Amino acid sequence: MDIHEKTVKIIKDFGFTGRGKIPEVLGISYSLFNNKLSDKSRNKFSEKNYKDLVNWLKDEVKKL
Known about the structure:
Blueprint: H1 3-13, H2 22-26, H3 30-37, H4 47-62
Helix pairs in contact: 1-4
């Protein structure tokens, strides 16, 4: 599983959408988020996007 697939899996498993905080966490716009999430797009989530998402999730879990 590559970085893009791992990122998409996390997003889908947690039910995240582009309307929430996730595009901000990844440092991208809502439209680019949806574009990267689309299977038809050439844009893919990068390793930076993946790391940002994982680090944000870890921080949120610590708050619980």
